[in-house]
Design brief:
mainly beta
Length: 137
């Protein structure tokens, strides 16, 4: 397991709460939906957090990128005082310029569906973190 992760379940800003999303196993996935394909439904914004494990930091920030078969149906946004900021394009990465400490840095995700797809429990998308991690000084 890496020393940086994504958390869901209503995490609080600067806290250490939330449930850590599984890394490639699907054991504790981030769940959005269900969504109605017949109406091209877009989900509500879901609050998530990124943080390093205790004793570590990503001093130069981090980037989260949706990857996988339907990654272009996921959009990410920074936090804006407890609400979703402006969402990027669907499938676009979200960059964090500031340090990622060992406490929650909030961000938001949403997903959409289109009427040309078959309704399914889509588990093809991963939110991949790119960051340089170091021990806190």
């Amino acid at each position: 397991m890496s020393v940086i992760g994504i958390y869901f379940g209503n995490p609080t800003s600067s806290g250490t709460d939330g449930t850590r999303a599984s890394e490639g196993t699907g054991a504790t996935p981030i769940t959005i939906g269900p969504l109605d394909t017949a109406t091209n439904e877009e989900s509500a914004a879901t609050k998530l957090a990124i943080r390093c494990d205790s004793g570590y930091t990503a001093a130069a920030g981090a980037t989260i990128t949706p990857t996988g078969t339907t990654a272009t149906k996921w959009a990410l946004a920074p936090d804006n005082s407890g609400s979703a900021g402006t969402f990027g394009a669907y499938g676009a990465a979200l960059e964090f310029a500031g340090a990622i400490p060992d406490s929650n840095v909030l961000f938001w995700a949403k997903a959409k569906t289109v009427d040309t797809e078959t309704p399914t429990n889509d588990t093809s998308v991963d939110l991949v973190i790119a960051a340089t991690i170091s021990p806190e000084e």
